Amino acid sequence: MRVTMRVDGADTAADIDRPGESLLATLRDRLALTGTKNACEQGECGSCTVLLDGDPVCACLVATAQCEGREVRTVVGAVPRAVRDAFLTCGAVQCGFCTPGLLVTVADLLEREADPSDLRIREALAGNLCRCTGYEKIIEAVHVAAAASVSGAEEARATDATAWPEAATTPAVDAPAPDSVAPSAAAPPATERTGDARPSAGEPQ
Amino acid sequence: MTAPVPATTTAPADFEFHRPADTAEALRLLAQRPETVPIAGGTDLMVAVNYRHTRPAAMLDLTGLAELRQWTDEGASIRIGAGVPYARIVAELATVLPSLAAASRTVGSPQIRNRGTLGGNLATASPAGDGHPPLLATGACVEIASLEGTRTVDAADFYTGPKRSVLEPGELVTAVTVPKAAGPQQFLKVGTRNAMVIAVCSLAVSLDLDRRRLGTGIGSAGPTPLRAPEAEQIDLPWAAPSRLDDALLIEFGRRVAAAARPIDDVRSTAEYRRHALAVCAARALRRVWTAAHERSA
Ligand SMILES: Cc1cc2nc3c(=O)[nH]c(=O)nc-3n(C[C@H](O)[C@H](O)[C@H](O)COP(=O)(O)OP(=O)(O)OC[C@H]3O[C@@H](n4cnc5c(N)ncnc54)[C@H](O)[C@@H]3O)c2cc1C
Ligand code: FES
Ligand code: FES
Prior knowledge:
The structure holds 2 protein chains of 2 kinds. Chain A is an alpha+beta fold. Chain A has helices at 23-30, 75-78, 81-90, 99-112, 118-124, 136-150, 166-169; strands spanning 2-7, 10-15, 49-52, 55-58, 71-73. Chain A is 30% helix and 11% strand. Chain A is globular. Chain B is of the alpha+beta class. Chain B is globular. In chain B, a hairpin with a 2-residue loop joins strand 6 (141-146) and strand 7 (149-154). One FE2/S2 (inorganic) cluster binds at residues 38-41, 43-48, 58, 60 of chain A. The site of one FE2/S2 (inorganic) cluster (FES) has 12 residues of chain A, from loops.
């Protein structure tokens, strides 16, 4: 079955072979768009957050076949430069595995609310787990990004994945279960699709 | 999780994924092939699919059905389409349906609330589903459709066991009709975090000032969501509101806890669930009573 959708602004077609294939699996394994991370496949971690018709959703819980004609924006196409710069300058990235999902959620939050309070930030980010940072730096990054966006310093939306600083784009490619997500700045860029690209995700808890 | 996908996909396997244009078409498809699995937000179903607890050969998307994705004001009540996501219930219905909106706001995370629906919550019929207690406490009705027609079931009669309901193959939940609040309402949920929590127990209480009636709904403390009929019958000091004292609050808590039929499980012991429900009930009654009489003062 062929599904056509817009992904990060480009018309994209994917041939899926079962009705329950998730948008996350399609993005990563069929379209080689590995910016969106897989760390649980049960909606708990938010690593796979993308914007579907403008709303943050867990790509692992959306059936690809539900996306016919819809607009999907991933970390590549959804995040203003001010947001990613703030994450880097604030040290809101450690292993980086949660980062793409957080960036998408934060971009969406700031789109809706220019200067959110700590409380609002915490509620908006409640579905994005980070095992490394302790969240304080992430919340700081949201404030910094908000200030930068308000001052209008940098509003251009990044549409080019290669504009990412290398170390921040390529955390543990296709990392396995969440338990074994390890810092891996040296991992190769995830540009090629191979037959065994599937992560071996964890068992249900 | 899932099997490796070949680098080049050529011949798609034989499977069905339907995107019906309206509810009538969806019901026709379901009647033709009752094992077709409907999918709304996917927040229950896709977890099971990803972990291979189920492998549907045919699915039917409900997210394209405009009729399911709208709510309407029916005067005394709100009719909420089964496919309206929680995020919209929170954003659009908090004033008229405060306890349902409060419960919706505790579901999962923003990502889950952008997709998850009351229709999916009802069809799953988990005793821990957060949509259920407010529906019970307010006396809501569930609208169920099939090719044969439409039937309406009181929320109190909808649940038949853990993850079981009166929903039959070939049927869809099309809407839930919830009476507008006629007084203050509360929804309290006990868990380890303020987000992403399956309730240890939960409680909805609604006070109807017009009919001088209390409504209750208990979650996650029995094989199904439950009402607490004896607690609803408690004698409230309507003529002299300041006479609502601790003894009465404690008695209300005792009756709510007595109505629960909790078990020990990974999230909690039965004993703790009863204790927590008694505390929540006293707190909820105090809050709705105080709010009601502050307002009219
Ligand atoms: C991370 C996470 C956190 C969660 N937290 C909570 C929580 O805090 N509280 C809570 O209550 N739930 C929670 N859930 C469970 C889930 O989000 C809810 O039960 C939600 O209401 C399911 O709705 P859905 O539209 O996503 O259902 P789906 O997954 O699309 O469907 C669920 C089932 O219902 C059937 N179905 C769906 N719609 C209909 C319909 N209209 N008629 C007939 N059958 C239908 C489907 O066939 C399927 O069997 C959570 C889930 C996840 C993944
Ligand atoms: S991979 Fe989707 S939420 Fe964790
Ligand atoms: S930086 Fe968030 S999980 Fe490692």
